Amino acid sequence: MSAGNNNRREARENCRKKLSDHINERLRIIAQPSDIRLNPGKNDPYRWKFMLGEEETFRPIFAKNLSDQSTGIYQLLSYAVGKRFEAVPAQDATPLFQSATTLLPTGKSFTTMIEDLSKENEKLCAEVDDLKTRLEIEERTRLNTEEENRQIRASQAGLQFQVQELLGFIENLRVSVSNYCRGMDQVVPLLEDLKKCGAESTGHT
Q1: Distance of alpha carbon 198 from the chain centroid
Q2: Average pLDDT of span 115-138
Q3: 58: burial class by Cβ within 10 Å (0-12, 13-18, 19+)?
Q4: Where does residue 33 rank: exposed (0-12), middle (13-18), buried (19+ CB within 10 A)?
Q5: Which residues pair with 74 in a beta bridge?
Q6: Which of 77, 174, 177, 187 has the greatest number of C-beta atoms within 10 Å?
Q7: What is the pTM of this model?
Q8: 3-class secondary structure, 31
Q9: The pLDDT of residue 131 is above 70
Q10: Angle between helices 55-62 and 110-204 (to 10 degrees)
Q11: CA distances (Å), 100 to each of 95, 97, 134, in order?
């Protein structure tokens, strides 16, 4: 089995399980994954109901057998069940959900349905691209913020180094001044003595 076929089989099985779990949880009906149908028979206790505005997207999908869908459709059904369509009890369903023919929108060809589905797919892809773009912008913003913070930290470190150097210079200056003052304290008495000696010598002359 090729990788593509294997992926499709896994997607189909996962889709059947998602639909089965939804029916079991919502309707309290035990429906085996292998028995799930997009177009339930008259003896099946459930029908499918599309949310408002989702009819054009899902009608052409539900017109086909579940086993005939593509990998992308299986993934779409797995994601959308309970959000864009849901299971309802058979007695609550309208005739819209009784057969594949009633699932086909009146006045639309199969080609038109495929085109509508392609447009929906393009819309979803555009939404994904938009989300990717926003995530990239947020990531760039985060990186820029981190770079700015790094530069700020580097600047702060540089300023701290300069402050330490300045404090060291001030301390050296203080020591030099202190030494100078002590030296002056010793020199001044000597000058006074010399001055007295000079005065006495002049008096004896």
Answers
A1: 93
A2: 85
A3: buried
A4: middle
A5: none
A6: 77
A7: 0.45
A8: coil
A9: yes
A10: 130
A11: 11, 8, 41
C-alpha–C-alpha distance, residues 143 and 51, integer Å: 41
25: Cα within 13 Å, side-chain hemisphere:
9
Residue 31 burial class via C-beta count within 10 angstroms: exposed 0-12, middle 13-18, buried 19 and up = buried
- CA-to-CA distance for 148 and 145, rounded, in angstroms? 5
Q: Nearest 5°: phi and psi at 104? A: -75, 125
Structure tokens at 34: 């292998």
26, 31, 32, 36: CA torsion to nearest 10? -90
Residue 113 has pLDDT above 90, yes or no: no
How would residue 189 be classed by pLDDT, with cut points 50, 70 and 90?
confident
Q: How far apart are CA 109 and CA 1, in angstroms?
A: 34
User: Which amino acid is located at 70 in the chain?
Assistant: S
Contact, 48 vs 97, CB < 8 A? yes
Please tell me what DSSP assigns to residue 95.
Answer: G
